[in-house]
Amino acid sequence: MLKPSEAQDRADALISQAKKAGADAADTIYVCDASTQVSMRLGNLEDVERSEGEEIGLRVFVGKRSATVSSSDMDPAILSALVGRALDMAKEAPEDQYAGLAPEALIMKSDPHPIDGDDDADPSPEILREMALKAEDAARAVEGVTNSEGGGASAGRSIVALATSHGFSGAYSTSGYSISASVIAGQGDGMERDYAYHSARHFEDLDAAETIGKKAGERAVSRLNPIEFKSGAMPVVYDPRVSNSLLGHFIGAISGSSIARKTSFLLDALDTQVFDSAINIIDCPHRKRGLRSKAFDGEGLPTAKTRLIDNGRLTQWIMESASARQLGLQPTGHASRGVGGSPGVGVTNLHMAAGSLTKAELIQDIKHGVYITELIGMGVNGVTGDYSRGAGGFLITDGEIGAPVSEITIAGNLKDMFASLVPADDLDYRYAINAPTLRTDSMTVAGG
To answer: Metalloprotease TldD/E central domain: from which residue to which, for each copy (predicted)?
Structure first.
């Protein structure tokens, strides 16, 4: 695998070729990945997979016309032909008045902020095999577990380089490791499945395989013998495994493209109270060892800590340059892109700040409600905010989490849900997007 500096040289060279060939402007992104994955099932080695690949994407502009091409072949002759093809395509493309690189005055000019995203560890397939085996063994050892879908462990490294024709050039590398287990409890028609996993940038930060396995087994067993219950309007409490999905809907609603197209249920919400005044939602791109930490965005703009919700108030949209121009605003450093197509937007290490109540205090006054640990399907209307998802979890009765429930439907409107959310104090940074246990009293639940 190339070093970041070598990847940066490769991106710079392609930009130079594009400029010499006649492009008015250009940007290029180079991505190189290598990973090893090991899977165990019922104590036996099921699969060892090693994958390596590299791709480079080039976007060229001829006036207000643009085209994007990509290649996984780094042969100089192939790349030279790639430049010519991109220019030919761009000349035939329709004009787009909002197309173009990020404003030159905003591109990152200082040294990148250190994110400590690569530990340079390289665990062998034998070590990964042992981790996967330990995870599965621990899960199968839980009383009530009757079968296994397997344990897995992986290790990988990625290098990303970005260059633009108006002066930006940067690269970074990240490592990534994961451990998982998925098992089945019960027999016949009463079988239930669940899983556990953990991902980390540094190998030393990964949860113990036995911890992951035990959690997977206990989760599967806890779902056995689901009961029927009375449907109706009731409090719904989201476990941290699924509460972060609500932040995903929020981010989709404040993306510049959604606002520019007028397809967001938060279209008129800027600088208004969207959540309770106790809630803050923050994007932290420079968190050390964060799963999505990065010093610059997909257009070469510097990233920065951003308080998207400040005491319940929506402070800004998240925008790449094209949607920012359409809205008459400035890009916000949230551009995200792959080797194909134009940049979109995305967040890095997003979280909702913890509240002041423990989980027990959050649910202690609930007479009849549900505690959700699983969501199924994607029944969310981004234009209206209407929300309807299949779900599973546990009944809450008189302030206590009790018997499992499955095949239920939870429904509401995201505007009402956001306004009524109450966070617990159990925020844990385990995912790219994190939220504590969340309660909302504005939903209807239909039993299975």
So the answer is: 119-224
CA distances from 22 to 98, 133, 165, 173, 292 (A): 21, 56, 12, 31, 35
Q: What pTM value is reported for the model? A: 0.95
Beta bridge partners of 67: 60
Residue 222 has pLDDT above 80, yes or no: yes
Q: What is the pLDDT of residue 377?
A: 86
- How far apart, in whole angstroms, are the C-alpha atoms of residue 408 and residue 417? 18
CA distances, 332 to each of 34, 301, 324, 351, 365 (Å): 31, 8, 8, 18, 41
* For residue 237, pLDDT beyond 90: yes
Alpha carbon separation from 427 to 150, 179, 243, 279, 293 (Å, rounded):
29, 21, 11, 13, 18
> Among candidates 177, 176, 179, which has minimal Cα distance to 215?
179
pLDDT at 96 over 90: yes
Domains and CATH numbers, the chain: 4-221 (3.30.2290.10), 227-448 (no CATH)
In the structure, what pLDDT confidence band is assigned to residue 114 with cuts at 50, 70 and 90?
Answer: confident
Give the pLDDT confidence of 199-218 residue by residue, as tens digits. 999 999 999 999 999 999 99
What's the distance, CA 268 to chain centroid?
A: 26
Beta bridge partners of 337: none
Partner residues linked to 244 by β-bridges: none
Which residues are CB-contacts of 243 (< 8 A; sequence separation ≥ 6)? 352, 435, 436, 437, 438
Burial of residue 29, with CB atoms counted within 10 A of its CB: 0-12 exposed, 13-18 middle, 19 or more buried: buried
For the cut 80, the answer to whether the pLDDT of residue 448 exceeds it is no
CA within 13 Å, CB half, 74: 15
Tokens of residue 125, six digits: 């397939």
Q: Chain-centre distance of CA 233, in angstroms?
A: 31
